[in-house]
Amino acid sequence: MAKTGGGRGQSAPTYGQRARRAIGLAAGLTALLSLGACADLMPAAGATGMADSNGEAASSQINTHPDLPSSHSAYLIALVAQDQHDYADSLAFYQAALAQDPNNGDIASHLFVLAIIDGKLDMAAKLTDPLLHANPQAPLINMMALVEAVKAGRMDDARAAADRLPRQDVYKITGALMRAWLAPDKPAGAELALRELDAVRGFGELAALHRALILDQTGDRPGAEAAYRAALGEGAPVRVVQLVANFLEREGKTDEAVALYPKYLGATEAELGFPPPTGTPPAPLVADIRGGMAEALFDLGNLMNGADSPNLALLNARLALELQPDFPEAEIVLAQAFEGVQRPDLARQTYATIDPATTLGWTARLRIAALKQQADDGAGARADLEALAAQHPDRPEPLVELGNSYSTDKQYAQAVQAYDQAFARVSDPNTSSWWGLYYARGTAYERLSNWPKAESDLRKALALQPNQPAVLNYLGYAMVDRGDRLPEALKLIKGAVEQRPDDGFIVDSLGWAYFRLGDYKNAQTTLEHAVELKPADPEINAHLGDAYWQGGRREEARLQWQRALGLNPEPDLAKAIEAKLDKAPPRTAKPAKRTSDAEPAPHHGS
């Protein structure tokens, strides 16, 4: 059976992912993050002490821990807990440490960050003034001061804090957005700030979106419309489409607003769970400055999640929710960030707070089921998904996820049934957004050894999404494994490698293809690279051992097989490797087959 490669296969983005994905994520964001934004997770530079009166006021809110011998001990324990993303314990030990050493700015800075991440913003607010006094330029402290000032209506103080934000690293983006929304002379002052954002490569659509929102609030309807349209780049996220459609509906352009959803998201409003237009102009989704700033922080949280910086995503999502508590989009970002730091328990708690009757509540319930599946509770996940499918008999998503769950648990016949039921609910399965459903059903058929149906679905997926690396890899490898149209198969796998040259599983597919074709020299070279990319994968190591053996490098082959056995392979693979070590395989023996499962189908590819 074919292996998927690419982290067990690449899925199309789900609705939930797109709801929380980065808006126009720029190629340079990772570089911006590396320049110093992560310093917010460390003590503020120079914050070695706090003013006595302020420090005492802050520490008076902190509970002591009677069993700790010293502030230093509590501080060290808190650092370890923080590193393990155990936010509650980390917060408690930082509190205990600060209670014993109330003027220690390093401890206070750590406590400040953990208080925000853990949602204790009232605690963080009490620490803001003394920390700001110790280090007036600290970015996160100024962000907290800015948020608190806006909440209190002290806009001059908020502008002063925004002006203190640095013009480099990721705060180049944050500061521009904050200064734009806080500009007293809108729209001219806001435009000056947004030009700073325009100057950052890849952030033009984000600047256009906030330009549109600001012009919308200032009453410049033509200017707002032009900016909204500029924000609609290729692959626009759900939130951007929502905001633009909301504006068009308010302008009486309902038909155009409705058409945005299938154009940019590949599905109608009904399929995505959005209520259709009622004929009455809706209220603006972003109604005031406070809402605009929350929207900006939500966007930044999306960017951080997309750039694999979940701690920074947590901070931005918490600040967004502090400005606008009823903001389910920001709660989705928060939950996704908890997933990113391997805290599925906190993610599930956060998803559960979202009103299940709303569109994002629906997304949240699907994610809760997915998290149950990840926790090896397939039965619980499937019970949830079956309930959702019964509750909304027109929605395919829960049945797609049901098929995913069955596939994950290797119940492929049931997976095919679920995917078939999902297809029955899809209005137009020939759109590109449904490639992943064909791909998933095709992989399930392949696992059931029904190659005619598997090939049909996999080729349909490729027709809908040409050059999709997961499909190229899976289809190509399956053909190689069958000895079917080998030149075409090799070309397909090479196409996948060209797009994802650093994906160890796909590189392994290419090496395995060379092996099947008897090209042991290229097989060895390619599989050596795959092992470099995925050194802890037992199957790739076993494949390299097979290639060494067939190439006459017997001792190296045995060492490689022994190494694979030490990497906790699945039982079938371990048995095959042990058999080779016990009895030398013939020179023409095939390598052990990959035992990993295909990636389940994506939720509807919006």
Give structural notes.
It is a single chain. This protein has 606 residues and is mainly α. Among the domains are: 120 residues, Tetratricopeptide repeat domain (Serine Threonine Protein Phosphatase 5, Tetratricopeptide repeat), CATH 1.25.40.10; 75 residues, Alpha Horseshoe (Serine Threonine Protein Phosphatase 5, Tetratricopeptide repeat), CATH 1.25.40.10. The protein is 67% helix and 0% strand. It contains 33 helices and no strands. Helix 19 packs antiparallel against helix 20 and helix 26 packs antiparallel against helix 27. The protein starts with 14 loop residues before the first helix and ends in a 24-residue tail after the last helix.
Features:
about 600 residues; mainly alpha; Serine Threonine Protein Phosphatase 5, Tetratricopeptide repeat; about 0% strand; globular; disordered C terminus
Q: Please report which band the strand proportion falls in: under 5%, 5-15%, 15-25%, 25-35%, 35-45% or over 45%.
A: under 5%
Report how far the terminal alpha carbons are from each other: 30 Å
Number of strands: 0
- Provide a count of the helices: 33
Helix vs. strand class = mainly alpha
Q: Please state the second-level CATH architecture of the domain at 46-165.
A: Alpha Horseshoe
CATH superfamily descriptor of the domain at 46-165? Tetratricopeptide repeat domain
Provide mean pLDDT, rounded: 86
| Coarse morphology | globular
Q: How would a textbook summarize the main sheet?
A: none
Rg is: 27 Å
Helix content: 55-70%
CATH structural fold name of the domain at 46-165: Serine Threonine Protein Phosphatase 5, Tetratricopeptide repeat
Question: According to CATH, what is the class of the domain at 46-165?
Answer: Mainly Alpha
